[in-house]
UniProtKB/TrEMBL annotation:
Ranges annotated as spanning the membrane: 31-52, 91-111, 131-150, 187-209, 215-236
Location in the cell: Cell membrane; Cellular thylakoid membrane; Membrane
Protein's membrane topology: Multi-pass membrane protein
Keyword Calcium applies: no
UniProt family annotation: Belongs to the ATPase A chain family.
Species of provenance: Phormidium yuhuli AB48
UniProt xrefs under Pfam families: ATP-synt_A
Listed Gene3D superfamilies: ATP synthase, F0 complex, subunit A
Protein name: ATP synthase subunit a
Reported function: Key component of the proton channel; it plays a direct role in the translocation of protons across the membrane.
Gene name of this polypeptide: atpB
Keywords tagged on the record: ATP synthesis, CF(0), Hydrogen ion transport, Ion transport, Membrane, Thylakoid, Transmembrane, Transmembrane helix, Transport
Cited InterPro entries: ATP_syn_F0_a_bact/chloroplast, ATP_synth_F0_asu, ATP_synth_F0_asu_AS, F0_ATP_A_sf
Keyword Thylakoid: yes
């Protein structure tokens, strides 16, 4: 799901397309329709789970409410560890949303038989199997830690680019570009590789042989979601730090 297109004076010089795409035309924009469909599916699952777990709250939680409260506590601990006890609360929804969306997206690619659903000139896959999704999530993370740093430290946030010496200015600026790149390509590469390995094994060997690989894929998908959310929280915490320590 990677498109590379170079144009000069509206004439295409080179075009490379990996995978099949179903485009929605919105004005002059081309949107990957299949990515929106699977993303809406993941969002719908999360919304339904939230409604079902909160529609009849009990003092002693059980069932889905108990599971969701456990997940919330886990996400609170993650944000508190990476951002700091005094600053983490406003960022729990953002970090939690990142983790849950990436986690459910990754598992949907492993558990939902998207390939069986036929679309015209297209194929369905997990939302995180598309580089556009992972880059968008990484850019949101970048905007979040810039906002966190500026709101916490004001214009003094930009002093970090010349600390501990102005000689490091180019390196510190480059670091802000490499952070979203590393986040997006790590997630995209791992999910794409996992789905490709399972697909190849299903074609080459009987059905039951790829099952251990699929189970391993579920585990690595969960780990990737945890890594993404942990790094996002760590970047936010780092942006709000002053001279290496939390305020």
């Amino acid at each position: 799901m990677l498109d590379v297109l170079h144009t000069v004076n509206t004439f295409p010089l080179a075009s490379l397309e990996v995978g099949q795409h179903w485009y929605w035309e919105v004005g002059s924009l081309k949107l990957h329709g299949q990515v929106f469909l699977t993303s809406w599916f993941v969002i719908a699952l999360l919304v339904i789970a939230s409604i079902l777990s909160t529609r009849n709250l009990q003092r002693v939680p059980s069932g889905l409410q108990n599971f969701m409260e456990y997940a919330l506590e886990f996400l609170r601990d993650l944000a508190k560890t990476q951002i700091g006890e005094k600053e983490y609360r406003p960022w729990v929804p953002f970090v939690g949303t990142l983790f849950l969306f990436v986690f459910v997206s990754n598992w949907s690619g492993a558990l939902v038989p998207w390939k069986l659903i036929e679309l015209p000139a297209s194929e369905l896959a997990a939302p995180t199997n598309d580089i556009n999704t992972t880059v968008a999530l990484a850019l949101l993370t970048s905007l979040a830690y810039f906002y966190a740093g500026i709101s916490k430290r004001g214009l003094g946030y930009f002093a970090r680019y010349i600390e501990p010496t102005p000689v490091l200015l180019p390196i510190n600026i480059l670091e802000d570009f490499t952070k979203p790149l590393s986040l997006s390509f790590r997630l995209f590469g791992n999910i794409l590789a996992d789905e490709l390995v399972v697909a190849v094994l299903v074609l080459l060997v009987p059905l039951f042989v790829p099952l251990p690989v699929m189970v391993l894929g579920l585990f690595t998908s969960a780990i990737q979601a945890l890594i993404f959310a942990t790094l996002a929280a760590a970047y936010i915490g780092e942006a709000m730090e002053g001279h290496g320590e939390h305020d």
